[in-house]
Amino acid sequence: MPAERIDGVAIAAKVRAKVAQDAEALKAKGVTPGLTVVLVGDDPASAFYVGAKEKACKEAGMNGETIRLPASTPEAELLAVIDKLNADPAVHGILVQMPVPKHIDAQKVIRRIDPMKDVDGFHPVNAGKVLIGDADGFAPCTPAGVQVMLQEAGVETSGKEAVILGRSTIVGKPMAALLIQSGKGADCTVTICHSRTKNLAEHTRRADILIAAIGKPEMVTADMVKPGAVVIDVGINRVDDASQKRGYRIVGDVKFDEVAARASKITPVPGGVGPMTIAMLLANTVRAAQLSLAGTPEGAR
Ligand SMILES: Nc1nc2c(c(=O)[nH]1)N[C@@H](CN(C=O)c1ccc(C(=O)N[C@@H](CCC(=O)O)C(=O)O)cc1)CN2
């Protein structure tokens, strides 16, 4: 039997509906949740994602603003923009769209954002909180979205072998941190594989839950997957396709058709994890606004 498709668009819509309710409740208390996205340069994919974030904010009744800066913007100027946003009480969430141009040190930029406004969950304070299982922190949106998808799809995670392909700080590492916590949607035994992992397929074939986040188009094939596994595809790769109007198509890290024939549940690309990234960003921003009302907790920064 082919795998059940886990519908990221439908699950994201559910998350966004709850965010809209929470935003409404905050507005009744005089606070409109606000996200400001900073885009440096004119990468078309980044411009598309930033536009989608602004639109999603507005649809949820939140303030969504984008600051567009030229690719030549000096690092110091970007840091000054962040300082201003950190000091602005109407801005609850700040996000600098990645990647930034090469002359800018992304880590320096991330560290400049107030951790209480770091709705991307990239600041070391939030990374540390996610690692120690402190619920006060902001988890990065993509792995947080994967965890929600697993729960919404009724996937039992407790005691399961989860294998993550990719050790990025945005997906692989925080994904592992979330799945090893104790509690709902977690309690997994986690393996992270990466470019130096030997006998990759031996690891992936042990996975009850396989999460592919390596950025290599259709790299995961059916022979790498245990029959009945749950397969989550985080990859969003553009491959040339002259038959498409835009000249490319989007594929994941998983060879969908053959893996779907072997897995029990699978996420598609597009329409899987991608929409969850934006939904979780809105959820983090509403939470940042709620926390701003409650006041900064002890030791939060
Ligand atoms: N500061 C950040 N930068 C980046 C992040 C991030 O979480 N924070 N993630 C990615 C890009 N990204 C959001 O920013 C993102 C990527 C993809 C999608 C999405 O919904 N994709 C669609 C397909 C879209 C298409 O057709 O091109 C899908 O998968 O269905 C949303 C957000 C890197 N940068």
UniProtKB/TrEMBL annotation:
Swiss-Prot/TrEMBL catalytic activity: (6R)-5,10-methylene-5,6,7,8-tetrahydrofolate + NADP(+) = (6R)-5,10-methenyltetrahydrofolate + NADPH; (6R)-5,10-methenyltetrahydrofolate + H2O = (6R)-10-formyltetrahydrofolate + H(+)
Residue numbers binding NADP(+): 166-168, 236
Biological pathway: One-carbon metabolism; tetrahydrofolate interconversion
A GO term for molecular function: methylenetetrahydrofolate dehydrogenase (NADP+) activity
Residue span(s) of domain Tetrahydrofolate dehydrogenase/cyclohydrolase NAD(P)-binding: 140-290
Keywords: Amino-acid biosynthesis, Histidine biosynthesis, Hydrolase, Methionine biosynthesis, Multifunctional enzyme, NADP, One-carbon metabolism, Oxidoreductase, Purine biosynthesis
Statement: the UniProt record of this protein carries the keyword Cytoplasm: no
Coiled-coil features, chain-numbered ranges: none
InterPro entries: Aminoacid_DH-like_N_sf, NAD(P)-bd_dom_sf, THF_DH/CycHdrlase, THF_DH/CycHdrlase_cat_dom, THF_DH/CycHdrlase_CS, THF_DH/CycHdrlase_NAD-bd_dom
Residues covered by the Tetrahydrofolate dehydrogenase/cyclohydrolase catalytic domain: 6-120
Enzyme Commission designation: 1.5.1.5, 3.5.4.9
CDD domains: NAD_bind_m-THF_DH_Cyclohyd (cd01080)
GO biological process terms on file: L-histidine biosynthetic process; methionine biosynthetic process; purine nucleotide biosynthetic process; tetrahydrofolate interconversion
GO CC field: cytosol
A Pfam family assignment: THF_DHG_CYH_C
Similarity remark: Belongs to the tetrahydrofolate dehydrogenase/cyclohydrolase family.
Function recorded in the entry: Catalyzes the oxidation of 5,10-methylenetetrahydrofolate to 5,10-methenyltetrahydrofolate and then the hydrolysis of 5,10-methenyltetrahydrofolate to 10-formyltetrahydrofolate.
NCBIfam families: PRK14186.1
Protein name: Bifunctional protein FolD
Gene encoding the protein: folD
